Amino acid sequence: MKFLRKTFDNAHAALNKSEKTKKYFPLVDAIDTLIFTPNHTTQGGSHVRDAIDLKRTMMLVIIALIPALLFGMYNIGLQHFYAQGIEPAFFDAFLHGALRILPIIVVSYGAGLGVEFIFAIKNGHTVHEGFLVSGMLIPLIMPIDTPLWMVAVGTVFAVVIGKEVFGGTGMNIMNIALTARAFLFFAYPTQLSGNKVWISGFKEMQDNGQVVDAVSGATPLGDLAAVGIAQEKAASLMELASSAVAEKAAVMTEKASALYAEADLLLAKVPTLEQSLLGFYTGSVGESSTIAILIGLALLLQTGIASWKVVVSFFAGGLVMALTFNAVGGNGYLELPALNQLFLGGFMFGMAFMITDPVTAAQTSTGKYIYGFLGGFLAILIRVVNPAYPEGVMLAILIANVFAPLIDHMVVSANIKRRLKRVKTA
Amino acid sequence: MPEGDQYKFFLTEGWLGLGLNKFSASRAYPTWMMPKSKKYDIDTNMYGEERAFVVSGQYDKVFPMDIYPVHLLKSIVINDIDAMENLGIYEVAPEDFALCEFVCTSKIESQSIVRQGLDVIREECM
């Protein structure tokens, strides 16, 4: 320990020797403060301080992500082998997944921390912890077949435009990880959505003819969107058929019933409530298992890092929207049971790790309820109504992020008004 | 009270340690489950470096008045007198923020910020 301490002290001393090297202090400082809690003491004010700091807070979030990450590794491997019709051993599946996910994690941390270090040196401040969590979130919300260079580009974009432009950790308006994903989603739509990116090595296996016929590679949400489209098309065909001449009507009805049959086939593939709790289906790396996510969420709520107000209202928002769709009905997607709807895709992951990001969430306690509800409500709305965006959760949370300052502004204004009234009556 | 000016290795005594003897108002250390009668060795270490506001709702828990402490602090930092008045600077003293300063994850010196705000108000408005 003393040896380590001495090494750091020497490194600091060496950097401080000349003005030229002085500005590189964040390089040493970042590693130093990681390994040793600094010896700073209080200068004024409260002379006893809480033992919590930002590093521990961030690290607890990373720990909370571990169940989802480990499950993701196993599931990615499992889906890879299932697509070829093989029932893999536990270890084979896990190894395959781990080998596919680890490079993404390395690239995401490398690119993001690289940018953070450059900005720290340029602005002459220490490296802040914000990216520790974002760097782990980014791999978990990407399709497994995202090329590594894309992960790097998205990460750099998110850190520079999403965060550093606003002043670094604690100042960003939108969630960094989601900014990275949204950027890639719109910049390279073919690599971030569709049916071919969710199973590792799917395109290659397809070219080699190794994929079993039953596997389309689509996510349950992709299937559901297809169900909605097919059923609506069929319904409009039936309507046309009712007013067409008998000959044409017969053709149309036939087409419509074919579409209905196709939709029914897809609907049968949608995971049941139980299956979506366990999470053995295709999707982004970390999003599929509701149970793994809930374990992480429990840790976040217990430590008080995630606000239960946001979590509860986000869930409520999604539930209200899903129940509304259930009541309206019309096609298989709208009529999907509400809970089932919420447990699919990124909704639970967004609820546990994205909407709860304290920097981009509303800061006031009343605001948190409104903010969470808005996010959940929009997530299901976008997902169901626009079949092109099965990942409505991502967009909804980004929209909620943008509205958070406005929500806070209204809550604080109300507080000011209330207090001024009291002054006047007194 | 001991000075606490020694470095703490992260896994044993420092930020990532189990922290069975760390005094904290948050539940990030397991000591929140221990009986209230437990005695702690406290010192004047900062237990971290100053950062921007990240965690929200922390101050509200220990701040009894009907005021948004973080918003008030931010208005002082940007020197916006109108906002300070609206957010209730006339109703607070620096000591009111002592607990906020204690619980702060970002180690922000709220008391001295409030002092600075009050000084500005005194100069400009009295």
Description:
The complex is a heterodimer of chains A (426) and B (126). By secondary structure, chain A is mainly α. Chain A has 4 domains: 2-35, no CATH class; 54-207; 220-269; 306-425, no CATH class. In chain A, 70% of the residues lie in helices and 0% in strands. Chain A has 19 helices and 1 strand. Chain A has helices spanning 2-16, 19-22, 25-35, 54-83, 90-123, 131-140, 148-163, 176-187, 189-192, 202-207, 220-243, 246-269, 273-278, 290-303, 308-328, 338-343, 347-354, 365-385, 392-425, and one strand spanning 36-37. In chain A, helix 4 (54-83) runs antiparallel to helix 14. The model of chain A has no long low-confidence stretch (mean pLDDT 93). Chain B has 126 residues and is an all-alpha fold. Chain B has 2 domains: 1-47, no CATH class; 58-125, no CATH class. Chain B is built from 5 helices and 1 strand, in the order βααααα. Chain B has helices at residues 58-62, 69-77, 81-86, 98-103, 110-125; one strand spanning 8-9. Chains A and B meet through helix 3, strand 1, helix 4 and helix 19 of A and strand 1, helix 4 and helix 5 of B.
